[in-house]
Specification:
Elements: E1 2-6, H1 9-14, E2 17-20, H2 28-36, H3 40-46, E3 53-56, E4 59-60, E5 72-76
Parallel strand pairs: 1-5
Antiparallel strand pairs: 1-2, 3-4, 3-5
Helix pairs in contact: 2-3
Length: 82
């Protein structure tokens, strides 16, 4: 099982946490695609037209990063500051 965390506007739309069954060969990008396939709000806020950052086990990573059973995958919008 994967633990999913959402931050900022994603958290407002989807809640703070969710889970997804683990499947061999998954990457962070494949997790995002599985969530988009749920449709509705998931498709709106995680869609490919949205620029998002991701992390695996508290480490920033590209979507090609493989995931393992028990991992935490987080999604959040890019942060800007001033």
């Amino acid at each position: 099982m994967l633990t999913l965390r959402f931050f900022a506007r994603l958290r407002e739309a989807l809640g703070a946490e969710d889970t997804l069954p683990f499947e061999a060969g998954l990457t962070v990008g494949a997790v995002r695609e599985a969530l988009i396939a749920r449709g509705g709000r998931h498709a709106q806020v995680l869609g490919r037209d949205q620029v998002l950052r991701c992390a695996r086990n508290h480490q920033m990573c590209p979507e090609e990063t493989p995931v393992s059973d028990g991992d935490e995958v987080a999604f959040f919008p890019p942060v800007t500051g001033g």
